[in-house]
C-alpha cells in the first residue's frame, strides 16, 4: 500500500495514562426485516489497545452507526461480547463517553453547567476546578458563564468535547463530530482533538465518512463494508486511494 504521513501515528500507545483497552470478540448484531435478517454488523473481532486512536470508515449502510451503538452500550450484541478494560459492556458504561454529530447542549445551562453535567456527586471545589481545566484545554477559558446560543458551531462542539473529557473516560467515542462544521473550523478542531488525545491518553474510536480525516487523525484505520471488516491497518501505511479502491468509491 502507498504510505502517507500521519501525525497521530508518531504518538505512543499510552495505556498508563488512562486509556482503557477495548475488545470485540465475535460481536454480531443484525436488524430483523420483513424477510428475515437485515443489515447490521458482524461477526466482528477487534482489539484496540489502551490509548490508541482508531478511526472507522465506510460507506452509508456499512455498519458504522451500529458498531458505535454497540460500543456505547445502546445495543446489546446478539452474539459475542464487548469488553472495556477487561469488563464486559452490558449497557452505557461509566468509563466511556460519546460525542455525536450535534453538540446537544442543554440550552438552559451555562457552558460551565453543561461541562459539569457528568460530574454530579463530585465535590464542588473539585468539580469547578475540573470544569475550568477542561474549558482551558479546549480553548474556551472564560466562557463558563455563557449560554449555548451565544456560541458558534465550533465553540459548541468544543464544549461537547470538554463535557466528554471532564469525566476522564477510558474510552472516547466520536460519531462524525465535525461533519456540520465548515472546512477551516473542522481542520482546526481535528488538530486540537489530537492535542487533547495526546494529553489525556484516552482510547479513541472516531467514526467518519471523510477518508482524509481518518488518515490524518488515526493511528490505525478500520474500514467496514457490508458489516464486515474489509481493512484493519496502520494509517501511516494506507492512502486515500487505497481506501477508495477498497470501498468502491
Automatic annotation (TrEMBL):
Pfam families: ABC_tran (PF00005)
UniProt region (Disordered), positions on chain: 1-21
Domain ABC transporter: 22-243
Family annotation (InterPro entries): AAA+_ATPase (IPR003593), ABC_transporter-like_ATP-bd (IPR003439), ABC_transporter-like_CS (IPR017871), ABC_transporter_ATP-bind (IPR050166), P-loop_NTPase (IPR027417)
Signal peptide limits: none
SMART domains per the UniProt record, alphabetical: AAA
Protein name: ABC transporter ATP-binding protein
Amino acid at each position: 500500500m502507498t504510505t502517507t504521513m500521519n501525525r497521530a501515528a508518531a504518538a505512543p500507545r499510552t495505556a498508563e495514562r488512562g486509556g482503557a483497552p477495548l475488545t470485540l470478540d465475535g460481536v454480531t448484531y443484525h436488524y430483523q426485516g420483513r424477510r428475515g435478517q437485515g443489515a447490521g454488523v458482524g461477526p466482528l473481532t477487534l482489539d484496540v489497545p489502551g490509548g490508541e486512536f482508531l478511526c472507522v470508515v465506510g460507506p452509508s449502510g456499512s455498519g458504522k452507526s451500529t458498531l458505535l451503538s454497540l460500543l456505547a452500550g445502546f445495543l446489546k450484541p446478539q452474539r459475542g461480547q464487548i469488553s472495556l478494560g477487561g469488563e464486559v459492556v452490558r449497557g452505557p458504561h461509566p468509563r466511556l463517553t460519546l460525542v455525536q454529530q450535534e453538540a446537544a447542549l442543554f440550552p438552559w445551562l451555562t457552558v460551565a453547567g453543561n461541562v459539569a453535567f457528568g460530574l454530579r456527586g463530585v465535590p464542588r471545589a473539585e468539580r469547578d476546578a475540573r470544569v475550568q481545566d477542561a474549558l482551558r484545554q479546549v480553548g474556551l477559558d472564560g466562557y463558563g458563564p455563557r449560554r449555548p446560543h451565544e456560541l458558534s458551531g465550533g465553540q459548541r462542539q468544543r464544549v461537547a468535547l470538554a463535557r466528554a473529557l471532564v469525566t476522564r473516560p477510558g474510552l472516547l467515542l466520536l460519531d462524525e463530530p465535525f461533519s456540520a462544521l465548515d472546512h477551516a473550523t473542522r481542520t482546526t478542531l481535528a488538530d486540537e482533538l489530537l492535542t487533547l488525545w495526546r494529553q489525556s491518553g484516552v482510547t479513541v474510536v472516531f467514526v467518519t465518512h471523510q477518508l482524509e480525516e481518518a488518515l490524518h487523525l488515526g493511528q490505525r484505520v478500520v474500514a467496514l463494508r457490508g458489516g464486515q471488516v474489509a481493512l484493519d491497518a496502520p494509517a501511516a501505511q494506507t492512502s486515500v486511494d487505497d481506501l477508495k479502491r477498497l470501498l468502491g468509491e
